[in-house]
């Protein structure tokens, strides 16, 4: 798949890049995408939710009334889950939601997500992205010149660039990551994928094995 290369002003540079079919032109595997996205979202969960059981509630363990003869149900203590302020039955407890996936499956999922973006023509290739200073208006001008201001965008840089990253933080619907951090969820969550020439080379080395 051949794509025109743009500069940060949204103008064509005259160059074109051939996106590798092995990464951007595969037959998408929806189940692999599902599993990879499920793992990503599961790994974001802290799992620190906690409710108190009856043995953790502060209160007396005195029996409220005699077992029989009251005409009502038997009751052990005020900490019973049946009473207001008592312990919770089968409440949430701290747990780890993360799970493992085969590395090859994750590669298939990322290739599938990138292929969907390429098929829908939602990939823009930039020659390079550099800013002289940290200014939000620089990044805002760039996405305006690229006509993607109203869409969610994912900028993939070849390496960490603090000027670019810090300039994007105050903007909504914008995310900047490195090629090494690329994941299936972020690719699918973005409307437009902004790649630099060097980022494409890194992705090719990492995924086209």
Task: Summarize the SSE layout with pairings.
Elements: E1 2-6, E2 12-18, H1 21-24, H2 30-44, H3 103-119, E3 123-126, H4 136-145, E4 153-157, H5 162-168, E5 174-178, H6 184-189, E6 192-196, H7 197-207
Parallel strand pairs: 1-3, 3-6, 4-5, 4-6
Antiparallel strand pairs: 1-2
Helix pairs in contact: 2-3, 4-5
Could you characterize what this model shows?
There is one protein chain. This protein is an alpha/beta fold and 209 residues long. The chain has a domain at 2-29 and 101-207: Ribosomal Protein L4, Chain: A. Helices cover 33% and strands 15% of the residues. It is built from seven helices and six strands; from the N terminus they run ββαααβαβαβαβα. It has a six-stranded mixed β-sheet. The chain is elongated. The mean pLDDT is 94. Belongs to the universal ribosomal protein uL4 family. InterPro entries: Ribosomal_uL4 (IPR002136), Ribosomal_uL4-like (IPR013005), Ribosomal_uL4_dom_sf (IPR023574). It holds the Pfam family Ribosomal_L4. Part of the 50S ribosomal subunit. Residues 45-77 are annotated as: Disordered.
Describe what is shown at a glance.
33% of the residues lie in helices and 15% in strands. It is α/β, with parallel strands linked by helices and 209 residues long.
The fraction of residues in strands falls at 5-15%
The CATH level-2 architecture of the domain at 2-29 and 101-207 is identified as 3-Layer(aba) Sandwich
Mean pLDDT: 94
The quaternary structure here is single chain
How many strands, what sense, and barrel or not for the largest sheet?
6 strands, mixed
GO cellular component, one term: ribosome
Region (Disordered): 45-77
Protein name: Large ribosomal subunit protein uL4
Family: Belongs to the universal ribosomal protein uL4 family.
